[in-house]
Amino acid sequence: MSSNALHFEVTHTCKTTKARVGRLKLSRNHTSRGPIETPVFMPVGTQGTLKGLTPEQLHQLNCGLNPQLREQSVKEIIKRDCPGYAIGGLSGGEDKDEFWRMVTLSTDYLPKDKPRYLMGVGFAIDLVICSALGCDMFDCVFPTRTARFGCALVDNGQLNLNKQIYEKDHRLIDDKCICPVCQYGYTRSYLNTIVTKETTACHLLTIHNVAYQMRLMSRIRQSIIEERFPDFIKEFVSNYYQDKDIPQWIINSLKSVNIEL
């Protein structure tokens, strides 16, 4: 049941991975929205589910990840010729090596001319990896929720501005950031003094975190268009982990799309 309410066009593809850049247009009640450039991150607010259950308890209830069932599901749903497809059930703390395999299994089967929306995924490293695996759209409460805990997102993870080490740190959150918070000169030390006392801190960090996610997706799109996405990934992963060991799931997932770290 194809719909004129959604139009999606792939404009560029990565020659190495499954990543692509697309343009999405929405029309409803004679009102047009867009174009929206993909890959795109969409900040949202949702309520958590299945709180209080361990992974073992979920497994006992026959919950979990099954590649055969997911393959059966994707084959059946594409018969319906939907305007786009959501990939769900992968943002609840699943084992990362299973997570990426379910993502790439889904994108292998989903139509190339329809948008693929990976639900509830928002960590920066996940956005980069899953773009490489062929996903177009992401949403998550992470950038806004982590702001409420006093954390700012940067390329090597996040800064917990509650910590004492930032009391006399007069640097910006990120000197490369063009968000209003960084451009207006709010320093780490200033945010440290108000982060547990004033709601203003939450507001400022939310602005920065959402802007960070948007800028990250813009960098991903631009690197695909300029045919340097594999190099972008290698540089991003190197900066993200710095002196730490790169998790094996990242090495495995990128190897599956022809990127060797």
SS content category: alpha/beta
Mean pLDDT equals 89
The major pleated sheet works out as:
4 strands, parallel
Helix content: 40-55%
In the predicted model, the low-confidence regions spanning at least 5 consecutive residues are 45-49
Give the strand line-up of the largest sheet: 4-7-6-5
Count of discrete domains: 2
Beta content comes to: 15-25%
Per DSSP E runs of 2 or more residues, the count of β-strands stands at 9
Strand/helix succession: EEEEHHEHEHEHEEHHHHH
Terminal CA distance reads 42 Å
Number of helices: 10
- Dominant shape: globular
Using only CA atoms, what is the Rg?
Answer: 19 Å
Describe, in short, the structure shown:
The chain contains ten helices and nine strands. The chain is of the alpha/beta class.
Characterization of this structure:
There is one protein chain. The chain has 261 residues and is an alpha/beta fold. The chain has helices at 55-60, 67-77, 96-109, 124-132, 142-148, 180-183, 188-194, 199-225, 229-241, 248-255, and strands at 6-13, 20-28, 31-38, 40-43, 85-87, 116-118, 137-140, 151-154, 157-160. It has two domains: 6-140 and 242-255, no CATH class; 145-209, no CATH class. The chain contains ten helices and nine strands. The strands form three sheets. Strands 4-7-6-5 form a four-stranded parallel sheet. A three-stranded antiparallel sheet has the order 1-2-3. Helix 3 (96-109) links the parallel strand 5 and strand 6. The longest helix has 27 residues, at 199-225. The protein is globular, with a radius of gyration of 19 Å.
